[in-house]
Amino acid sequence: MKITNSICLLLLALIIVSCGNKDSYILYGNIKGLQNPKIYLVSGENLQFDSIQAKSGKFTYHGVSKTVQPLLLYMEDKNAWVTLWVQNGETFSLTGDANYPEMMMVKGGEINNLLSKFKQDNLSAIKEKCNFRDKLDNSAPSAESNNNINNTTQFSSQLKNVDQILKSRAQDFIAAHPSSVASLVLIQDYILDIKNACGIQSLLNQLTGEAKTNPLYEKLNMLCIKDLHTKPGQPALNFMIKDTQNDTISLKTFKDKYLILTFATAQCELCKPEYDELLAIQKTFPPKELAILTISLDENKEEWKALAKEKGINWTQAIDSTGWASEIASLYNVSSVPCNYLIDKNGIIVGSKLRIDSIQSILKDKIKPK
Questions:
Q1: Of 31, 142, 183, 369, whose CB count within 10 A is highest?
Q2: Nearest to 244 by CA among 289, 298, 286
Q3: Residues with Cβ < 8 Å from 260, sequence gap 6 or more?
Q4: What is the spatial distance between Cα 51 and Cα 36, in angstroms, rounded to a whole number?
């Protein structure tokens, strides 16, 4: 009878623990090289935020996730981050070095285990990628010496070679695991080129089962669709917005003219040299043949107005104060600025995501200068 009671108590304890785990998950972390103990966590479609303090790189976090979904951990003042996949009822462990977040390993759950296995099998290539990227970042000081240029070219070439190796190995993994969400993650992390997103369409077509029903699939598929819709030869998508003169404008406003459509922000340093180039183009070609429209993605309208005044921008401008939530930016697949399109007189996209000097070269063949 005594043995029976002990067994019953043990079973009851296991049931209680099990029930508790079903309503949450546990994450144990052990991160080397962590300089800032504060870690931020972001999860769920509604982007729920939380934070914890690590002690000597170690921490324990209890979270809630009724479905399998990504959990993002931001470290080192949000300069480094790692993603893992969590769900109630499971225990996860995160280990690695804060200096190499791409190489952090996560145990627990099929997705994390498969991704960690891929990382482990390709650890040397991933570390090479990190090192070449760091060297590339450090080899571009303000003064452009021949030595710096040579180093930049060399590191860039080496980085592309490693990227290609990892891309090939990720494709092999996807072919072997077409139903795993891990394959979606590898497409996003190692194969997706945001400037040519439709290049992943054939890989998405290989996926089956859970991989095809996960929200990440829809996100990647939508990137493909938007990319296809903004390729040269496609009809430019119509939009409607008020310009800085409070006039309502749309794509039809620029009918029978070539249109340079640019997206920018006041804080964008890469955008600033382009304003002088656009002014030069404006002076070169007649206004009856060419129009320029810049859509600012500044939430603070005054910031853009001050920049426009400083740079002498006098072509048509519109400020979409919804910022990166802009419907027009989404329509034109804008993921970064500057982002430039050239649209012909019939509303057909001639060039997408071009440099301004490339647009100028195209226009020389299309329009007679003043």
A1: 183
A2: 298
A3: 278, 281, 290, 291, 292, 293, 340, 341, 342, 359
A4: 12
pLDDT per residue over 213-227, tens digit each?
Answer: 999 999 999 999 999
Q: 350-358, long-range: CB within 8 Å, 24+ apart, which pairs?
A: 350/232, 350/258, 351/232, 352/230, 352/231, 352/232, 353/195, 356/274, 356/277, 356/278, 356/281, 357/277
How far apart are the C-alpha atoms of 349 and 234, rounded to whole Å?
Answer: 6
Q: Where are the domains of the chain?
A: 19-102, 124-229, 240-366
Nearest to residue 238, comparing CAs of 227, 253, 223? 253
Q: How many residues make up the chain in this entry?
A: 370
Average pLDDT, the chain: 90
Q: Which of these ranges, 17-21, 257-261, 295-299, has the smallest mean pLDDT?
A: 17-21
Same fold, 19-102 and 240-366: no
Report pLDDT for 44. Answer: 79
CA distance 33 to 98: 5
Backbone conformation region of residue 92, classed left if phi is above 0, alpha if psi is from -120 to 50, else beta: beta
List the strands of the sheet with 105-107, edge to edge.
Answer: 58-63, 25-32, 91-97, 105-107
Mention every residue, 6+ apart, whose C-beta is less than 8 A from residue 223: 192, 194, 197, 200, 333
pLDDT tens per residue across span 226-263: 999 999 999 999 999 999 999 999 999 999 999 999 99
What superfamily would CATH give domain 240-366? Glutaredoxin (3.40.30.10)
Residue with tokens 């092999």: 172
Question: Which of 95-109, 124-138, 255-269 shows the lowest mean pLDDT across its residues?
Answer: 124-138
Listed as own residue / partner, the contacts of 71-76 with beta carbons closer than 8 Å and 24 or more positions apart are 71/27, 71/41, 71/42, 71/43, 72/41, 72/42, 72/43, 73/29, 73/39, 73/40, 73/41, 74/39, 74/40, 74/41, 74/42, 75/31, 75/34, 75/36, 75/39, 75/40, 75/101, 76/34, 76/35, 76/36
CATH number corresponding to 19-102: 2.60.40.1120
Among 331, 324, 325, residue whose Cα is nearest residue 225 = 331
Six-digit token string for 360: 């100028």
